[in-house]
Amino acid sequence: MQPHNFSKVAEVLLLGFQNVQMLNFPFFVLLLIMYCVTVGGNLLIILVVSSSRLLHSPMYFFLTQLSLSDILLTTTIEPNMLHILFDEGRSLSFIGCLIQFYFSTVSVALECLLLTIMSYDRYQAICHPLHYTSVMDLTFCLRIVLMTWLIILTMMLMFFFTVSRLDFCGPNVIDHFFCDLQPLLELSCSDTFIIKMESLFLSILLAVCPLTVIMVSYVYIISTILKIPTVTGRQKTFSTCTAHLTVVSLFYGSIIIIYIFPHQQNAKTLLSLLYTVVTPLLNPIIYSLSNRDIKQALRKLFINFSHCKIVILLYYSWKS
Hints:
The chain contains eleven helices and three strands. The chain has helices at 24-51, 58-87, 94-127, 132-135, 138-164, 181-185, 193-226, 231-259, 265-271, 273-290, 292-319, and strands at 11-14, 90-93, 173-174. The chain has a three-stranded mixed beta sheet. The longest helix has 34 residues, at 94-127.
């Protein structure tokens, strides 16, 4: 048996943002700042949740996993995007392009499932508060998160190998800022029907079904909130869901706009920034600004950090 001809395309050229070439440097600086804020903000969320006993609950544990997913997504895409802007295009090895495709799909699928788990957590907390601690215990939370990571990594790895076995004969130019599925399939000279069917199945399983679960969860949540007799009680209960609802709307809204409604390629490229750059940036901001417990833990962390700095400065001044 002869070895499979993996690919006739050795490298691909990512064109990036051809419609903003005159603004490449300002755009580069803006995206660099956004990348630093995204990684720093999500790492800060993880640090605050892990260091504060007040935040040791299922909701915040799932939030740390969402932050990890956001860091994975933005780190997979943005450094390469910055390189594209700096060089006005970027050559990338075909294997590197496939690896970027794998990790970007993993992080997007993870976000879909984690947002679903978080909606289930809110459903249990609001609709079944008496059974919440027994259902959403530490063992269950660890198991469901580990299972989610394992399922996504395995399913996407199988899909990755299916895509990689296609024959890619060019052209080797991708009019996008990262290696997404559709641009990759346009480089293939093989029959891509099976890949498209697999992609449709995975989209239904990992995006449409989770969104349906989220919507059903919030139907029950809202109906339960409306039964609360006082306006203050309703507002207080619903406030625990506002951050999650905002993140779900941003993430799924941007994906629906990009992949369901038809757009020109330039518009689609810019709209892809919504879920790859803007959503990971806004997630920690939304949760930190709308959550009283996180704001309180942040203040305590900064106060402790300031005290540590003062102690260190006093120590070194005494030594000198």
